[in-house]
Specification:
Structural class: alpha+beta
Distance between the termini: 30 Å
Number of strands: 5
CATH superfamily of the largest domain: Nucleic acid-binding proteins
Number of helices: 3
Shape: rod-shaped
Number of domains: 2
CATH class of the largest domain: Mainly Beta
CATH topology of the largest domain: OB fold (Dihydrolipoamide Acetyltransferase, E2P)
């Protein structure tokens, strides 16, 4: 079972069904949270913002502390998108060289596989920089 990612933060803005919260990480030392992408560098300066849906129709007000949770399916999709293309790139590079040059050694097959692995990883990286994944958070409860 995949465990959803949970964050707590202060409500900064309410836009209809969407709630913008600021997560203050200045006192935390763990980096296994929603701000992992920046390795908490932005969070240490002034907190990072998360937009979440108020799917439970909670009575939320600006300034309240709330808990938000990323959906496990969203995290699984992001993990597959990050890890599957490089693996497929390695397999593709290995298979192409084996088909074109069957007399080449295993080192050459593996070397080209690694080149294709890094090429696929770079393509995923560039694609994610251009269009980051939309993380879908939902407000689970009001803390204070």
């Amino acid at each position: 079972m995949m465990f959803p990612m949970t964050e707590t933060g202060k409500v900064q803005e309410i836009k209809g069904n969407l709630v913008v919260i600021t997560v203050d990480k200045t006192e935390k030392t763990d980096i296994n949270d929603a701000c992992f992408g920046c390795m908490n560098m932005e969070c240490k300066v002034g907190g990072c913002s998360i937009t979440a849906e108020n799917t439970r129709a909670l009575r939320i007000e600006i300034g309240q502390m709330v808990e938000v949770q990323a959906k496990g399916v969203s995290l699984l999709g992001q993990a597959l998108t990050a890890f599957l293309p490089p693996i497929l790139g390695f397999i593709t590079g290995y298979a192409i060289l084996r088909l074109l040059f069957p007399e080449a050694g295993e080192g050459a097959f593996a070397g080209i596989g690694v080149v294709f692995l890094f090429a696929a990883a770079f393509i995923v990286y560039k694609a994610r920089k251009k269009r980051p994944p939309e993380e879908i958070y939902s407000v689970t409860r009001i803390i204070g």
